[in-house]
Amino acid sequence: MTKENLFSIAFYNTENLFDYKDDAHTLDTDYTPSGRKKWGHYRYQHKVNKIAKVISKIGTTDCMFPPVLVGLAEVETKQVALDIIHSEVLRYLNYDCVHYDSPDERGIDVALLYHKDFFELISSEAIPVQVFETNGIKDDTRDILYVQGNLYGELTHVFVNHWPSRRKGVDKTHLKRIALANILKYRIDQILAEDPEAKIIIMGDFNDDPSSESIANHLVSDRIKNPMEKLLTPKQGTLIHNGVWHLFDQILYSSTFDKEQGNQFKKAAIYNEDFLTDWTGRNKGEPLRTYIGKFYRGGFSDHFPVYAIFKK
Questions:
Q1: How does pLDDT run across 168-182, given as a tens digit for each residue?
Q2: pTM of the predicted protein model
Q3: Helix, strand, coil shares, percent, the chain, to 5
C-alpha cells in the first residue's frame, strides 16, 4: 500500500495555548506579559511554531501529507488556531479551522483544523453541555464541537471533545465525564438512526482512559470502536501523572470504517517521537512541557498527540 492511498487524522492537547492578551471574561491572567507565567509575544509565537511543527510531521511516515483533520484542545481563541495554520511550516498547506468560544472559565476551547483540499466543510455547531459539582453547582466546561463534511468525498461526522478534568479527584469528577459520554452518545445514536452506515470520528482529551467507565461502558459499542485500547501500557501513554501513564487522548470511529467500501481504518498510534520528549532529570521520558511549575522549559505540551491512519 502506497503513501498516496493513505491519510491521517490526529488529536493534540496543546496544554494552555493562550494568546498573551488579558481577557476580562476569563481566568487567563497568568498567561499575560505581567502575569505569573511572563507570557508574551516571543513565548507565544515560539509555542505556536512548535505545535505547528508537530502537526506538520504527524503521520508523514505513512502518508503523503500531514493530517487531513486535527482536533485541538486548550486553544484560547480562533486566532490562536489561525496562527498555527498560518505558521511557516503549515502555511503552504490549505488548512482552515472551526472554533467556538466555550463557557470554560479559563477560556480554553477545542478546535478542528481541516485540509480544504481533502475535507469539504458542510456545517458545524458547538453542542452545549451541562454538568454539576457534587454540591449541585453548575460546572462551566467545554462544549463538544460537532463538524460535518465530505472527507475524500464521503459524508463524515466529527466530534471534538475535552471532558472535565480529574483535578478534584476521580471519585468526585467521574460522573461529569459519564454525563458528557451520554450527551455524545445521544447525538451519535441520532445520526446512526437516520443513517446506519454513517461515518463518524470521535476524538478528544477525555480525561479518562480507554478502560474507564465513561468510555468503555457509555461510548464504545458494537458500532463505535476504540482502536486506542491496546496502546496504553505501564511504560507508554499520552501523559503521565504521579508516575503513572494515562491515555486520555483518543480517537474512536464508527464500525463502518472497518468495511471495504470507501475510507477504511488501518491503525492508530501515539506520536511520541524523541523530539517531543524530555530527556533530563526526573522528567526523563515524559512529554517536554512549556512550563514545569513556574519554570519555563520552552517545550510543547504535557500530552503526546495521537493519530489514526485510514485508507482512501
A1: 778 778 999 999 999
A2: 0.97
A3: 20, 35, 45
